[in-house]
C-alpha cells in the first residue's frame, strides 16, 4: 500500500479434501485444455459440487507460487514487498484461536479447528487486485465466511462484521513501529460477508498458508482491493456501526470502507484504470468489481460509488 506521509507500507480439514500440489498442477493443465473449447476456470476439487460456479470469467494461469509468497503486503512484518517472507519466520500460526463476539447469540472463543469444523472446504481461483495497481491470480483453499458467521447466530442488530489481525509485536517486527495503527482491522457489510464468493482462506495452491500470506486464517473478498483481505485473524465481531478500517484511519481521503475495485474511480494520486499482473510487463484494463460484477454488483445498486469508494 502507498501512503502519503512516509514510505512505509488446519485444523480439521480432511486430508482427502486437500488437493496435493502435483495433482493440483495436473488439474490446472486439464482445465487449461478445457479452456480451449470454451470452458471456464472452475474451482478445482469442488467444481462438480458447486452448480453453476464461475469464479474467474476468463481462463487465467495462476500466478506462480513463488511470486504469491514473496511479493506481499503485510505491514506487521515490514513495508517492503519482500519483508513479509523475510521477517515472518518467528511467527507462530499454531495453535490459534479466534474470538467471535458482538451482536450475536452464540459468541465464543474457538480453536481454529473448531471454527472450521464441519464447514465445506472450497478451492477457488480468484484474482487479487491491489489498490497499488498490480494483480495476481491465486488458487485459494478455505471455507465460506458465511458458514462461520451463521454458527455464531448474528442478531438483528448485526449490520457489519469487523475482523482483526493478531497483535504480537514480539513475533511481528513491524508492529514495534507505529507505521499503522495496530492491530490491523477490516470490515464488511453483512451482505458482503454473506456473499458466496467471500472466503476465510487457510491455504493457497493446496498447501497451508505461509506466514507472509496471513497464516493461519485470512479474509478473501475478490471484488475488493487487496487491502480488505485482513490476515492472521483473531477476532470476528458483529457490529451495528460501520467499522473503521486501518487504511481508512490512516488516509481517509485515499481509502474508503467499500474499496470495490472500480476502474472509474481513481485513487487521488494514481489511476485505477489499468493494472499489471505480477510476472507480466503489459498493463491490462482493470475490470469493474475485478470481473465479479455478475455476482456482486446487485449489492451496490443505487449507491453512488464515487462517494462510497
Ligand atoms: N493484513 C494485515 N494484517 N496487514 C497488512 O498489511 N495488507 C493488505 C492485505 N491484508 C495487510 C493485510 C494488503 S494492502 C494487500 S494488497 C493484501 O493483504 C496482500 O495479500 P498478499 O500479500 O497475500 O498478496
Overall morphology: globular
Kindly report the average pLDDT value: 86
Give the DSSP E fraction (strand runs of 2 or more residues).
15-25%
The structural class is: alpha+beta
Annotation field: number of helices: 8
Rg value = 18 Å
List keywords for this structure.
309 residues; five-stranded mixed β-sheet; 8 helices; globular; binds ligand MTE; seven-stranded mixed β-sheet; 12 strands
Explain this structure to me?
This protein has helices at residues 21-35, 65-68, 83-87, 112-116, 145-151, 190-193, 246-250, 293-296, and strands spanning 97-102, 108-111, 122-129, 134-144, 160-165, 185-189, 199-204, 207-208, 218-220, 233-239, 274-277, 283-285. With 309 residues, it is of the alpha+beta class. The strands form 2 sheets. Strands 3, 4, 7, 8, 9, 11 and 12 form a 7-stranded mixed sheet that branches. A 5-stranded mixed sheet has the order 2-1-10-5-6. The chain is globular. It binds ligand MTE.
Quick description:
The chain has 309 residues and is of the alpha+beta class. The chain is built from eight helices and twelve strands. A hairpin with a 2-residue loop joins strand 7 (199-204) and strand 8.
Amino acid at each position: 500500500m502507498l501512503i502519503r506521509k512516509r514510505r512505509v507500507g488446519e485444523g480439521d480439514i480432511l486430508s482427502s479434501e486437500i488437493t496435493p500440489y502435483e495433482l493440483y498442477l495436473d488439474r490446472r493443465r486439464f482445465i487449461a485444455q478445457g479452456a480451449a473449447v470454451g470452458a471456464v476456470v472452475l474451482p478445482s476439487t469442488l467444481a462438480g459440487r458447486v452448480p453453476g460456479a464461475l469464479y474467474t470469467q476468463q481462463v487465467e494461469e495462476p500466478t506462480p507460487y513463488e511470486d504469491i509468497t514473496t511479493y506481499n503486503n503485510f505491514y506487521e512484518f515490514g513495508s517492503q514487498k519482500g519483508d513479509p517472507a523475510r521477517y515472518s519466520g518467528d511467527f507462530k500460526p499454531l495453535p490459534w484461536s479466534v474470538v467471535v463476539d458482538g451482536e450475536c447469540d452464540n459468541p465464543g472463543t474457538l480453536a481454529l479447528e473448531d471454527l472450521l469444523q464441519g464447514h465445506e472446504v472450497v478451492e477457488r481461483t480468484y484474482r487479487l487486485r491491489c489498490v497499488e495497481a498490480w494483480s495476481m491470480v491465486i488458487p485459494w483453499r478455505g471455507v465460506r465466511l458465511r458458514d462461520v458467521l451463521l454458527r455464531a447466530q448474528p442478531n438483528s442488530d448485526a449490520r457489519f462484521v469487523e475482523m482483526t489481525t493478531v497483535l504480537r509485536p514480539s513475533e511481528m517486527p513491524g508492529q514495534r513501529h507505529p507505521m499503522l495503527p495496530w492491530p490491523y482491522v477490516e470490515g464488511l457489510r453483512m451482505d458482503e460477508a454473506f456473499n458466496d464468493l467471500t472466503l476465510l482462506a487457510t491455504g493457497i495452491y493446496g498447501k497451508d498458508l505461509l506466514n507472509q500470506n496471513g497464516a493461519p486464517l485470512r479474509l478473501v473478498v475478490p471484488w475488493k482491493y487487496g487491502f480488505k483481505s485482513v490476515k492472521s485473524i483473531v477476532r470476528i465481531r458483529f457490529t451495528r456501526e460501520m467499522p473503521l478500517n486501518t487504511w481508512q484511519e490512516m488516509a481517509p481521503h485515499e481509502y474508503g470502507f467499500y474499496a470495490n475495485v472500480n476502474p472509474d474511480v481513481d485513487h487521488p494520486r494514481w489511476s485505477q484504470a489499468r493494472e499489471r499482473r505480477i510476472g507480466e510487463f503489459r498493463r491490462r484494463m482493470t475490470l469493474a468489481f475485478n470481473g465479479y460484477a455478475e455476482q456482486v454488483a446487485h449489492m451496490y445498486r443505487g449507491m453512488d460509488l464515487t462517494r462510497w469508494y
